[in-house]
TrEMBL record:
This is Uncharacterized protein. Keywords: Membrane, Transmembrane, Transmembrane helix. The chain crosses the membrane at residues 12-39, 45-69, 81-101, 113-131. Coiled coil: none annotated. The keyword Transmembrane helix applies.
Length: 148
C-alpha cells in the first residue's frame, strides 16, 4: 500500500519523466531544443514559464523533504534509503536545471541544454518511479505449525 505522500511523489515523478521525454522527442521533431525555440519566439512567455516551473519544482522538493523526514522518523531502513536517494537525485537534477536553464532565463539568455540532458532527466525520474515499487514494510514470516 502507498501512503498519500508517496502517491503524490510517484505522480510527480511520472509527470516529470513524461515532461522531459516530451521535450526530448520535441527536440527531434522541431530540430532544435524546445526551450531555445520558445526563448527565441516569446521571451516574456519563456521567462513566465520558467518561473512557474521553478515554483512547481520547489513544491516537489518540499514533498521530497517531507518524505525524507517522515521516513527517517518512523520508517524501516529500506524506506530511509529510498527517501534519501530520491531526495538526492531530485536535488541534483534541480540544481543542474537551475544552472543550465532557470538562471540563464532570468538573465535573459538562451538555455544551455540538449536532448541528451532531457533524456538523462527522463531516465532519472523513471528510476525514481521504480523506487516506489520497493516494499517498505517488514517482511512477515510464516511460522509453520508442526504436529507431533
Amino acid at each position: 500500500t502507498y501512503f498519500p505522500l508517496q502517491r503524490l511523489i510517484l505522480f510527480a515523478n511520472i509527470y516529470l519523466a513524461a515532461y522531459f521525454a516530451t521535450l526530448m522527442v520535441a527536440s527531434f521533431v522541431i530540430g532544435m531544443e524546445p526551450m531555445l525555440f520558445f526563448f527565441r519566439n516569446s521571451l516574456s512567455g519563456y521567462i513566465y514559464l520558467e518561473l512557474l516551473e521553478a515554483l512547481g519544482y520547489i513544491l516537489y522538493l518540499l514533498l521530497q523533504c517531507l518524505n525524507l523526514i517522515v521516513s527517517f522518523s518512523n520508517g524501516p531502513t529500506s524506506a530511509k534509503l529510498v527517501a534519501f536517494l530520491q531526495s538526492g537525485v531530485s536535488i541534483f537534477i534541480g540544481l543542474h536545471y537551475y544552472v543550465t536553464v532557470f538562471h540563464r532565463a532570468m538573465a535573459q539568455k538562451a538555455p544551455h541544454t540538449s536532448w541528451k540532458i532531457h533524456g538523462a532527466y527522463t531516465i532519472a525520474f523513471f528510476v525514481l518511479c521504480l523506487f516506489s515499487k520497493i516494499k517498505h514494510g517488514k517482511k512477515e514470516y510464516v511460522q509453520e505449525q508442526y504436529s507431533s
